[in-house]
């Protein structure tokens, strides 16, 4: 089972699209996009994704990507994964 990372389509349009595309290329990560994840305030203020049910944010796409991988590595279910 691979870690699940979910994105809101509105947040993709705000700058997270490159993160989504980078994660799509990683065969060890499952990536989904939804019309809305119901984090509208957060969505309008920062880049974010939901990683295994937890919100992960970043000020830039690069920071968001790094924070997503850090969240996956810190999750006990996936701590043995090599990214």
List the defining traits of the structure above:
83 residues; alpha+beta; 3 helices
Please sum up the structure shown.
This protein is of the alpha+beta class.
Shape: globular
Number of E-type strands: 4
Order of helices and strands: EHEHEEH
- Tell me about the largest β-sheet: 4 strands, mixed
Query: What's the alpha carbon Rg, rounded to whole Å?
Result: 12 Å
Mean pLDDT: 92
Strand content: 15-25%
* Count of helix runs: 3
Low-confidence spans? none
Question: In angstroms, what separates the terminal alpha carbons?
Answer: 15 Å
Q: Give the helix level as a range of percent.
A: 40-55%
Summing up helix and strand content along with how strands pair, one would put the structural category as: alpha+beta
Strand order of the largest sheet: 2-1-3-4
Topology of helices and strands:
Blueprint: E1 4-8, H1 9-24, E2 30-34, H2 40-45, E3 47-51, E4 54-58, H3 61-74
Parallel strand pairs: 1-2
Antiparallel strand pairs: 1-3, 3-4
Protein described:
This protein has helices at 9-24, 40-45, 61-74, and strands at 4-8, 30-34, 47-51, 54-58. By secondary structure, the protein is an alpha+beta fold. A hairpin with a 2-residue loop joins strand 3 (47-51) and strand 4. Helix 1 (9-24) crosses helix 3 (61-74). The longest helix is centred in the N-terminal third of the chain and has 16 residues, at 9-24.
């Amino acid at each position: 089972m691979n870690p699940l990372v979910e994105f809101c389509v509105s947040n993709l349009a705000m700058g997270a699209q490159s993160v989504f595309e980078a994660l799509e290329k990683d065969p060890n990560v499952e990536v989904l996009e939804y019309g809305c994840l119901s984090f509208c305030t957060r969505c309008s203020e920062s880049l974010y994704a939901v990683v295994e049910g937890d919100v992960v944010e970043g000020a830039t796409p690069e920071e968001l990507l790094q924070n997503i991988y850090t969240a996956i590595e810190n999750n006990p279910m996936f701590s043995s994964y090599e990214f």
